[in-house]
Design a protein that fits this description.
Domain DUF397: 6-57
Order of helices and strands: EEEEH
Protein name: DUF397 domain-containing protein
Distance between the termini: 33 Å
Pfam family, one: DUF397
Number of helices: 1
Structural class: alpha+beta
Shape: globular
């Protein structure tokens, strides 16, 4: 899967400590990508948009 054109974003709450951040690409057609900001060329987790919304919604409520 070619992700070179993906627009990766970090949370605005990640602060100045960049050591433990995840980045999310929401602009992929039919997919959401998640990767470790320390290893941008490393593995990417890929979710269907509905699964990503369910995951994020669950995390926010906890």
């Amino acid at each position: 899967m070619d992700l070179t054109g993906a627009g990766w974003r970090k949370s605005s709450r990640s602060g100045s400590n960049q050591a433990a951040c995840v980045e999310v690409a929401l602009d992929l057609p039919g997919l959401v990508g998640v990767r470790d900001s320390k290893d941008p060329s490393g593995p990417v987790l890929v979710f269907a948009p509905g699964a990503w919304r369910a995951f994020v919604g669950r995390e926010i409520r906890c």
